[in-house]
UniProtKB/TrEMBL annotation:
Domain STAS: 193-277
Name of the protein described by the UniProt record: MEDS domain-containing protein
Length: 277
C-alpha cells in the first residue's frame, strides 16, 4: 500500500510515489520551503509545461521572490535529462555536480531538486539504468550539498517498478517497502541496509545489490546495518555470493548479534559480522 497523504520530512534523497498531482504539489512546496530556509537553490524539474507548474508555485510569495533572486526555477525535464533515451548515470551525476557547483558559486548553500521522473523509467531498460543512477547520485549526496526528491507516478508505472526505485533511497513514502539499500558517507562503509530481508524479497535484494555496483576497498565491502531489523540465511548467502564475485568479504555492521550467530552456523566464509554497540 502506498499512502500519498503521509508526509515525509524533506531529507537529502527521497523517493516520492504519488497518485495525483495535488499530493505531489503539496510535498514539492514543503521542499521549496525547506530549501529556501536553508539558503539552497531550488529546481522543480518537470515534463509538464513550465507555466502550468509555476502557476501554483507563483502563488507562494517566497517562490516569486526566489525566482527574482535566481534562487528558484521551474526547469523543463528535457533540459536536465533525455526522456526518450536511457540515462547515462555518470554523465547525469556530473551534470548535477556542475549545477551544484554553480549554485555554490552564486552564494547558495547547495542545490535542492524536485524531479518528476516518471518519463525516465518507462521501459525496462530505462528502469534498470535509472536505478543504477539513483544509487550513484545517492553516493554523491553523501559528500556534497545536493538534495533531491524523485517523484514517480504509481498508476503509470505500477507498484513493482516503484518498489524497485524506492528500495534504492534512504527515504520514501512507500509504506510496505520491506528493505532499503542506500549510500552512506565514505567513513561509514560502502552502503547501508535497513528494514527486513526475508524470502519475500530475495530477488529484489539481488537486483538492488547488482544495481548498486559496490566496489570493494582493501578486499572488503562494508555494509552499515544498524537499521536492519531482520536478515534470513538466504539473504546472507546472496550477500556472500555477491562479495565473492568481487573478490571481497562482506562486512555487516549491526547491533544485533543474531546475524553473527547465523553466519557462524551457516559457515559463510564470504561474510563477517561486526556487532556494534
Amino acid at each position: 500500500m502506498i499512502n500519498n497523504e503521509r508526509r515525509t520530512a524533506p531529507g537529502s534523497h527521497i523517493c516520492w510515489s504519488y497518485d495525483d498531482l495535488e499530493s505531489l504539489a503539496d510535498q514539492a512546496e514543503r521542499h521549496l520551503a525547506a530549501g529556501l530556509a536553508a539558503g539552497e537553490r531550488f529546481w522543480y524539474v518537470t515534463p509538464r509545461p513550465s507555466d502550468l507548474v509555476a502557476e501554483r508555485l507563483h502563488a507562494l510569495p517566497s517562490f516569486t521572490d526566489a525566482v527574482r533572486r535566481g534562487a528558484a526555477a521551474v526547469v523543463p525535464l528535457v533540459s536536465t535529462y533525455s526522456p526518450d533515451q536511457v540515462v547515462d548515470p555518470a554523465a547525469q551525476v556530473a551534470a548535477y555536480a556542475a549545477a551544484t557547483d554553480e549554485a555554490l558559486a552564486a552564494g547558495h548553500t547547495g542545490l535542492r531538486v524536485v524531479a518528476e521522473a516518471t518519463e525516465l523509467v518507462r521501459t525496462p531498460a530505462q528502469l534498470d539504468v535509472f536505478t543504477r543512477y539513483e544509487h550513484r547520485i545517492d553516493r554523491y549526496m553523501r559528500t556534497r550539498p545536493f538534495k533531491a526528491m524523485c517523484a514517480y507516478h504509481r498508476l503509470n508505472l505500477g507498484d513493482r517498478a516503484v518498489t524497485e526505485l524506492a528500495c534504492m533511497h534512504p527515504q520514501t513514502n512507500v509504506e510496505d517497502l520491506l528493505f532499503r539499500l542506500y549510500a552512506v558517507a565514505p567513513a561509514d562503509g560502502h552502503a547501508a541496509l535497513a528494514g527486513e530481508l526475508d524470502m519475500s524479497n530475495h530477488d529484489l535484494f539481488r537486483t538492488a545489490l547488482d544495481r548498486a555496483d559496490l566496489r570493494p576497498t582493501d578486499g572488503e565491502l562494508v555494509l552499515s546495518a544498524a537499521d536492519l531489523r531482520f536478515v534470513d540465511h538466504r539473504a546472507l548467502a546472496h550477500l556472500a555470493e555477491y562479495a565473492h564475485r568481487r573478490g571481497a568479504t562482506a562486512v555487516l555492521r549491526t547491533p544485533r548479534s543474531a546475524a553473527a550467530r547465523l553466519v557462524e552456523l551457516l559457515d559463510l566464509p564470504g561474510v563477517r559480522v561486526e556487532v556494534t554497540p
